[in-house]
Design brief:
The complex is a heterotetramer of chains A (82), B (480), C (106) and D (222). Chain B is mainly alpha-helical and 480 residues long. In chain B, 78% of the residues lie in helices and 2% in strands. In chain B, helix 5 runs antiparallel to helix 10. The radius of gyration of chain B is 21 Å and the shape is globular. Classes of the chains: A mainly alpha (82), B mainly alpha (480), C mainly alpha (106), D mainly alpha (222).
Chain lengths: 82, 480, 106, 222
């Protein structure tokens, strides 16, 4: 139960941080951490299938797509203001 | 006995996927062939429902609540027939419209196929989670279609539409999660008696979430902000599909939930609130339609207004005598059908006028009356339904709604309907007047292929004839 | 209170956080992040509430797997549109949300 | 104006969250017990793992539509008009160590995907997880500069993207000849589900990788 409460606190903290931190890159990294914590939560909920899918798709692929978008954004910024 | 229900879902899934693999040429021909087939399937299903009442189909043979059931009653059959009837002429129209835009056409067919599969699956589903999946399929297909031709305007509209539709389906899904939590099932058939027996407060919250999400997807005032740019900015065949059918799919679900699943817990206050939002939509949408300078934006705001009439159904049919409720219910469904046919014709006609003149402002369509009289005639016929003049389907629908309002002594809805009718007459005549103005000598004019004109006339005529054969449609509705 | 219910409550909080972020944050990437957090919240609610007695329930678990796939599909489409907007307008925002200097984003 | 909106939304959202939390603390016992029904019918489903049984058999129709959603998203992205840069986009940072590593890892991931797929019948795993592993291999190959981003998929690739959905539909239709849609005969259920899952894995891998490979090079060039 204590582990669950800690995990829940970490989940909420990473979600709030991902939504409010000023730096976009940091926000995406926090979102990936959030995804991995979600995978842990699924494991705690006796849902190993979702844990696998969440880690691979929710954190992994979504994270990769978001990181790529941030990189694209930064590239555009540099082009606009050399 | 042959059962058309699974085929109505499989056919568009199959042709959409094959159209993606094979490319636009063969894909387009396959699509048209399958659409003709689907229209006959829907007709067969209608006959079966009239003869034998509600039909169920247990996918996988398990049956609810373990498996997923398909269900066809009068209402879903009307929606299925309407959908196939509108899409077939629009398919011919789209082939002519996208000539010379190979890349758009390459993806138009698969996206339209999935859109159609989503709608047919939605109308046939009797499982709230399965409906969520069809809603997402529908939303993503619609967004893909809006963004099809690109450009800053449509892409922005598509993005806004996507965010709105995702917020809507998320609210719906949370409602489904709560329902599963309370009752342990997501089947409409299993849930209905359970809700009637005992509904804790959580169920009311679930109902509010699901209805709000669907209202956002139906673009009911004040959630209409995403609709005009999306419907006005999309290519004309897409605008026609979206305005005529896609928003009706989520409205159909609202009807299904309100009068079926949540019937034991809905209140007259909530119904009056929905009616008030509908009245707001009629007045505000018509007013803004009148102020538009671009043809397709005018037609799009007209959709915002016409959606309002649909929601007048709730205060007129909730908690009233059976006779009044019957009349309101018939009027509401007839309005869905009439507006679907008329708005498909109107958007298609607007697209044809824009193609012919090369300009999308209302001021640019001068001379249309002499150059493409057939298209303008179709636009005017559709306008008759939108205004609600006899003998159109729109008249029959609004007459039934007026009758229900009179019988239940809710005169305020009558005022709204009359004012809305006058405003819609004003914006339809604003277009017609401009079309009859003489052409400037310098204006260039493109000749239209026949297939860009005749399907429109067909749709407009259907919306008019509906006023005469409305009884047939309503008898199908009563069969269940 | 079972631990499944703790997760369900967390799900409710995540849904609210995500919804507020989706509506209030003007930057499209943040809206997309918020949508995903909101989705995770719904999934936690679905499974957490269903398993509140402590026994695993494969039905909502399968539904969540479906939901995760739908969410990545929506996310990818949203990112594609956001990137097009960036290339055309130089910004990842909807035009009506361009004002507001007090916003948190780069 | 903006601040007012913020405060209103935050207030409403927290009020809603509190109501939601309070309500779910006080739920009655569910009237329908689906887990028991799943356990009771598990033997008839052709697989041993309950989640796979729900996903591919009891609620297989959901999964069929869900594959369509995923394919549709990729289609929607491909449909956006874009001018892909002429040179094949490869990350410049591809270093030899990463490349060598990838050459070893990619076949390994293929094996893992095969195992996860096969294991899905008995324990956690299945087409989705296996497809995600495949997609991961694809992304890794791209990052190592060994796989170019996609411009427009050719016909073979399109067929590969669609094969999962098409096989699923074909099985569903074939089964209709002797019963209803997606009703597996008991003796064949396991084999048919594995066949669907195998083709799904391929398509899911391609589609998920495609989401990344199309997006990563989708700039509108002026």
């Amino acid at each position: 139960m204590i582990f669950d409460l800690l995990l829940v606190a970490a989940l909420l903290w990473s979600a709030v941080q991902a939504l409010t931190t000023p730096d976009l890159f940091r926000a995406v990294v926090l979102f990936i951490i959030f995804g991995l914590l979600m995978a842990l939560a699924w494991a705690r909920l006796d849902a190993p299938d979702i844990a696998l899918a969440e880690a691979a798709i929710g954190a992994g692929l979504t994270g990769a797509l978001l990181l790529d978008a941030v990189a694209h954004l930064h590239k555009k910024r540099r082009e606009q203001s050399p | 006995m042959f059962d058309p229900m699974p085929w109505l879902i499989l056919s568009p899934l199959i042709w959409a996927t094959l159209a993606f693999v094979h490319g636009p040429g063969r894909g387009g021909r396959l699509a048209v062939a399958c659409l003709i087939l689907q229209l006959s399937l829907a007709a067969i299903l209608a006959q079966q429902v009239i003869a034998g009442g509600v039909r169920m189909y247990a996918v996988g043979g398990w049956g609810a609540p373990l498996g997923i059931d398909l269900m066809a009653d009068g209402l879903s059959t009307v929606m299925l027939l309407l959908t196939q009837t509108i899409v077939l002429p629009l398919a011919f129209y789209a082939r002519a419209y996208f000539v010379g835009h190979a890349n758009s056409l390459r993806y138009f067919w698969p996206l339209t196929g999935y859109l159609l599969a989503a709608m047919n699956a939605l109308f046939l589903s009797s499982d709230v989670f399965n409906i969520y999946v069809t809603l997402e399929l529908l939303g993503l297909a619609a967004v893909g279609l809006v963004a099809l031709v690109g450009g800053a305007g449509p892409i922005t509209a598509a993005m806004r539409y996507l965010l709105a539709t995702l917020l809507g389906s998320s609210a719906y899904l949370l409602g489904v999660a709560l329902l599963y939590g309370v009752y342990g099932s997501v089947s409409l058939v299993a849930l209905k008696p359970l809700i009637a027996a005992d509904a804790p407060a959580t169920v009311s919250l679930a109902a509010a979430l699901m209805l709000l999400g669907l209202m956002l997807k139906t673009a009911l005032f004040p959630f209409h902000f995403w609709l005009p740019p999306a419907h006005g900015g999309a290519p004309a065949p897409v605008s026609a599909l979206l305005s005529a059918l896609v928003i009706k799919a989520s409205f159909y679900l609202i009807l299904r939930l309100w009068f079926d699943l949540f019937a034991p817990i809905v209140s007259i206050t909530a119904a009056q609130l929905l009616g008030a939002l509908g009245a707001g939509a009629i007045l505000w949408g018509s007013f803004l339609a009148l102020r538009q300078t671009h043809l397709k934006m005018l037609v799009a705001y007209s959709t915002v207004a016409q959606v309002g009439y649909l929601f007048l159904l709730f205060p007129l049919a909730t908690g009233m005598s059976a006779e009044v409720a019957e009349s309101a219910w018939q009027g509401g469904v007839l309005q869905v059908v009439a507006h679907g046919l008329a708005k498909a014709a109107m958007f298609a006609a607007a697209g044809a006028m824009i193609t012919a003149t090369g300009r999308d402002e209302i001021s640019g369509i001068a001379g249309v009356a002499t150059r493409i009289p057939l298209t303008l005639f179709a636009f005017a016929l559709a306008g008759v339904t939108i205004m609600g003049l006899p003998p159109s389907g729109g008249f029959a629908a609004k007459w039934l709604l007026l009758g229900a309002a009179l019988a239940s002594e809710q005169w305020w809805w009558i005022v709204v309907m009359v004012v809305g009718g006058l405003l819609s007459a004003a914006y339809v005549f604003k277009v017609l007047r401009q079309a009859f103005l003489p052409v400037e000598e310098t204006a260039s004019f493109q000749l239209l292929p026949r297939m860009l004109e005749w399907p429109i006339l067909l749709l407009a005529l259907a919306s008019l004839v509906l006023g005469l054969v409305g009884i047939e449609v309503l008898s199908l509705l009563g069969a269940a | 209170m079972s631990s499944a219910l703790v997760y369900a409550l967390t799900g409710a909080a995540l849904f609210v956080l995500g919804m507020a972020g989706l509506i209030l944050q003007p930057h499209l990437l943040r809206k997309i992040l918020a949508f995903n957090i909101m989705g995770s919240g719904i999934f936690l609610m679905l499974v957490g509430v269903a398993q509140r007695a402590g026994t695993p329930d494969p039905v909502p678990q399968a539904m969540v797997l479906t939901g995760i796939v739908v969410a990545i599909a929506a996310t990818a489409l949203a990112l594609a549109l956001a990137r097009q907007l960036l290339d055309m307008n130089g910004e990842m925002r909807l035009p009506e949300e361009k004002t507001g200097k007090d916003r948190l984003d780069v | 104006m903006r601040t007012l909106l913020n405060v209103t939304v935050l207030f409403l959202a927290s009020a809603f969250g509190l109501a939601l939390g309070w309500l779910i603390l006080d739920l009655p016992v569910a009237a329908v017990r689906l887990p028991e029904q799943v356990t009771a019918q598990l033997e008839m489903s052709g697989v041993v793992h309950p989640v796979t049984a729900v996903l591919l058999n009891f609620r297989g129709y959901d999964t069929l539509l869900e594959i369509a959603v995923l394919l549709l998203a990729l289609l929607g992205i491909l449909a956006l008009p874009r001018h892909v840069s002429d040179h094949q986009h490869r990350p410049s940072s591809a270093n030899p160590v990463l490349q060598t590593l990838t050459r070893v890892l990619a076949p390994l991931m293929l094996l893992v995907a095969g195992y996860v797929l096969w294991a899905g019948a008995h324990r956690p795993g299945g087409a989705f997880q296996a497809g995600a592993v495949l997609a991961g291999a694809g992304v890794l190959l791209h990052l190592a500069g060994l796989l170019p981003a996609w411009a427009t998929p050719g016909r073979t690739l399109r067929a590969g993207l669609a094969v999962g959905l098409l096989v699923f539909i074909a099985v569903a239709v074939a089964l209709m000849a002797q019963g209803t849609l997606l009703q597996y005969p008991l003796s064949w259920a396991g084999a048919l589900i594995l066949m669907i899952e195998a083709s799904l894995t391929l398509s899911l891998g391609l589609i998920l990788a495609g989401l990344y490979l199309v997006l990563t090079d989708s700039g509108v060039q002026k």
